[in-house]
Each structure stands twice: as C-alpha cells, then as structure tokens.
Amino acid sequence: MTCREFIEFLDRYLGDELSPAERAQFDRHLGVCPDCTNYLATYQETVELEQKALAPDDAVPADVPEDLVRAIMSTIAQK
Amino acid sequence: MPRSARRFLVGVSFFVPLHPAEASTDEYPGIRGFSVRRAGDKSALVTEGLAADADAALIAEARTGCPRAFEQLVRRHAPRVHRQALWILRNEADAADVTQEALVKAHQKLDSFRGEAKFSTWLQRIVTNLALMKLRSQRRRPEASFEELLPTFHEDGHHTRSVSPFKECADLEEQVARRDVVCRAIAQLPANYQEILVLRCVQELDTQETADFLKISTNAAKLRLHRAHQALRTLLAAELGVDP
What we know:
The structure holds two protein chains of two kinds. Chain A is mainly alpha-helical.
C-alpha cells in the first residue's frame, strides 16, 4: 500500500467501511509510515476541531430584537 | 445516523441547546408558563409535546390570517433561526437578512406545512436552504486553488512532504484561540465544501441525508466531505505550526 492509497481511503478506514483484509493492510502501512501516522492523527484532530467550531453553543438570546420582529411582520403585511 | 458516522464522531461531544421556544416565556393565551427543558429531564418529552401543541394552535390561527398568532411564532422561533443563519454565514448583517427572509417565506408557505415534522425542524430546513444559497452566491476560494490544499504524492505514491503532528493545546485560552483559527480556515474553503461541513456538523445529517439534500450520490457526498477534511487539515497545519 502507498501513502496515496492510504490517504485516498482514509475516511473509509475511519468509518470502519473496509473489509478485515483491507483494514489489515492499512494497519500494516501505519506500522511502517510515520507520515501517514501523523496524517491520520492530524486528520482526526481536524475533524474534532471542526465539530467543536461548528457545534452549537448556548449563547442563544431568549428574545429576538424587536426591530427584526417588526421588519418581518411589516414585510408580511405588505405581501 | 449510520454506524460509520457514529464511529467517526466518537469522542466529539455535541451540546444540545434548549429550544428557544421552550426557554422563553410564552405570551400566547393558554400556554403561558412552559417549564424549561434541561438535559436528562424526564419531562422533556412532555414539554416538547406541549411546545408542539402550542405551535400547532398558533399555526392554525395564523392560517386564518391572524397576524398576532404568526408574530408569536416569530418570537418563539426567530432566535434559533437567527442562530442557524449566523453559524452558516458568520456575518451578523447577512444572518439578520436571512432570518427575515426565512420567516417571511415560512409565512407564505404556512399552508404547505403538514405537521409531519416539528415546526422548528421545518423552519430550520428553510433557513438552512436560504443561508446556503447566500453562501454559494458569495465569492470564495476558486476550485483551482482548492486543489493546492489537497495532499501531494511522488510518482511512487509517497508523500512529497513530511507530515508533522499538530502542536499540543496548552490551556483554555489557547483552545479558544484555536477555535477562531478553525473558523477562519473553514471560511477559506469553497462554498460547496463549507456547505457539506454545515450539513454534517450543524444540521447533523447523515451521509444519505446529505447526499439527498445536495442531490448527489452517497459516494460523491463522502468524497466531498473527505476532501473538505483534507483541505481543512492543510489550512490548520499551516496555522498550527506544522507542515504547510
């Protein structure tokens, strides 16, 4: 297995979509390739950071600005 | 969510927010005084049911042309709609425009709401569509330079550059700074790659739902998501002090 193949199918490896034989090939490659080992770790960290960045936070205003409500109701009234 | 996606998200915690409709005081007669839903609260389902009933009553009245009923729906749901728009667009002015557009559209299409999904879910779909349309219309990194963000290999299939780990994140302050770095990096992606991240991470759609939404095959959806992750990894590597 080459690094190109490893990276190309990395999502399938992480998603547990490979056959046991294919998975064993990936694991063997990881055992001998520090670049792909680092790539795998940073790829997983990227996904986690992306999830955290895009995940909801609790900074939800309880109320919507009055002018926005008025603008919406005014637009509806005109239609 | 399919098993593969669940495995993919192992270790990632999602904060489940209060529904603003449940968190705010409801002024509509007969449904005043909702209890606030908390994580693990066994009465959550009951509360959710009451909120759905309240929405149904307001929708029925709004359909008769009662502006006050629709205004109550706006007050109940606009914060969540606005937050969704802001997450996707990351710009307050654009988010306010899309919030307004989404709720006006919801009013126009109220007769087509059949109650098969929750009203809040229906609204989220409307605002997501509108926000993604706006995102697509904005100028982003062209596809040609996107290719430069993907990993490169020698003819024999080995990496052209050595790959280093990311720096350790020392403290909370650094974690907050890192989140900003990630947001800026996501904003540098072409719109269709940002779009798939939003659908997966914000909308929490699975692969099949994402493919259906984008009208592409599941394999194409998987490939696009994988390329988005690869490009984002490259951008983060440049920012976090390892291989550019």
